[in-house]
Amino acid sequence: MTTTWTIDAVKEALAAKKISARELTSDFYKRIEARNPELNAFLALSPERARRQTDRIDALVAEGKALPPLAGVPVAIKDVISTRGTKTTCGSKILENYIPPFDATAVERLEAAGAVILGKTNCDEFAMGSSNENSAYGPVKNPAAMDRVPGGSSGGSAAAVAAGLAVAALGTDTGGSIRQPGSFCGIPAMMGSYGRVSRYGLIAFASSLDRIGPFATNIKDVAAILQVIAGRDPHDSTSTTAPVPKYSAELGKPVKGLRLGIPKEYFAEGMDAGVRQKIEAGIEIFKKLGCELMEIRMPHTDYAIATYYIIATAEASSNLARYDGVRYGLRVADDSLLAMYRKTRGAGFGPEVKRRIVLGTYVLSAGYYDAYYLKGQKVRALIAQDFHDAFSKVDAILTPTSPVPPFKLGERTDDPLQMYLADIYTVTGSLAGVPGISVPCGRVKGNLPVGMQIFGPAFGEARVLQLAHAFEQAGGANL
Amino acid sequence: MKISREDVVRVAELAYLDLSESELEMYRAQIDEILEYIGKLNELDTTKVEPMAQVLSDDQTADATLREDLIVPCAVAEDVLKHAPDPEPPYFRVPKVIER
User: What is the pTM of this model?
Assistant: First the structure.
């Protein structure tokens, strides 16, 4: 059994000179070397970059200088997030050889805070998928059950942290792509409010929904990573000026008296019986902690998947127009420019991406725009209103993260609509822009992780983390 | 049937996407099923609802006021061209577009 390193443990070990940053990182690369061939969680490693950073940290230790908050902490970055000098493929053949000339703001901030970037993690192509099986570089396996999917689209980041191949990781969430793999791999995973973390350098899928957020092994570490990456960035006009509170100060505060909403619509048919039992037991924990549980109604929940697959695909069809074989990535040569575009895109994109480009182009096309895209935007407003109304009565909302535990590899690949329905509890919060976390909530059928989702109001990350931490400390993971 | 083969051909043309015969039929059938599912949105009367393009209100973004128009150096041109499929610095080369 490999040691589980936390951010605090790294800090203490470095300060006490029990291990150097270089030794720790080299230990993590050994773990990756041993486990990655079967897990397929990493697509690329950046040992030279890691070495430069560990040298910097070890010099600070040697000089007895103050260490930055994430000093020497080995982290992994989802492959849709730009890393200067390291291949960033988005899990796609069309970007097989793409090397970004700049860092995403979130990556830059992690490194400035002392973190060591180990490498890039596998994901569904352009973050489109719920099982990681849409990666052009093969599926990731779930470390908790090797015949199962790790969830998606940030499956590599979730699997890497769950298997102890990184202390923490960045993922991205558009309709559930952080929270659902966090749930499937049995680790905490958080999406902050839309606008909380800069999207600069995040290769766009659906710009009004995409968010970057952390995976870690415990809530304190999730809070520490979010603390570093959150906040206004002049490079992203949708990153907000809302102040970033000190999240760690909220952890450990009593949750007694907080009002938690249980939306009836999330507990309707279609949920696995084992998952239901664990979530109900999880709700009991909050009751014991003195929270006030209230049944609430969120009447438009059932329309969220339909709305999401209009808006996300429409935005994707527009964002992915940039892959034309001219400036970066694959080019399939032809004498005619238009034929070159068509062939490049036909050859470079995988099936799910093509499916979404076709659907997204269709819902935006003349004659269908009002019936689909505009209708979707209107229902999005109704779904956001459901959240707004709920948060006038409660402090947070509890739901399952996924209706089912991790499913078997290959089990759902033939039916895209079935795969889309895996996101049924997560897309709502994506459309509404609110923060959400998935926290481990026991295991079913032997060793299959279950996650509980906690939603807070926009920019209520501190409250979400406080509740998640209380749940964790009360033994929520061992239900 | 919500979407025809001709619709898929037209949309693929709009998206500059080469699709094989088998892809055309597969996507038509799958997207038909998805659109059928999406049709449930018509159960909702949205005549009085304002469409929501994005979630942030004006006071939540700094761009409610425009930033100063400053020139900031961004010396990545060489790097960018190095990784282009067919670079001819300082240009990207593409197949001939204009017939003489």
Answer: 0.97
